[in-house]
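#onboarding

Welcome to the new folks! Below is a worked example of what a typical request in this channel looks like: someone posts a single protein sequence, and someone else replies with the predicted structure as tokens. Don't worry about understanding the tokens yet, we'll cover that in week two.

Example request:
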Amino acid sequence: MNDPLASLRDIVLPPPVGWWPLAEVWWFIIVGTIGFVTWFVWFLWRNWKLDAYRREALQQLNAIERRWRDGELDNPVEAVNALLRQVAVTAYTRDRIAPLHGKAWAAFLRNNAVRVIAPDDLDELLALAYQADVSRETEKIERLLTFAREWIRRHHQ
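Example response:
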């Protein structure tokens, strides 16, 4: 008697599916990822270049503060006010900034950096630039320097 199972053969499997060529969906994913990464790098580079004036202004503000702390600068308020004006002229137009002074200038500083908490007496702090002796106003100058640093970092256009 012949065994019927002896005549059976193993199932021949087809070769495994290769990963190349890629399916169309993978090409879309690859191209989309490359496009997104390219856009993101360009976005970061553009913002870094656009914020160059902020970085330079912060360096100048640090130099003003260092000179004041070392006793080389008697009244840093004038220099800080001039620096804030320079930053504002760079970020906005000269026509918009040039006529501002006094309360209008302080209001401009408050209104164009809503995420920065401006001191209530900002007008008074900026007016210290016109005082001869500000040696006793250390706390006010500290507040102005803090505000100026935050304003330069966070003002919006």
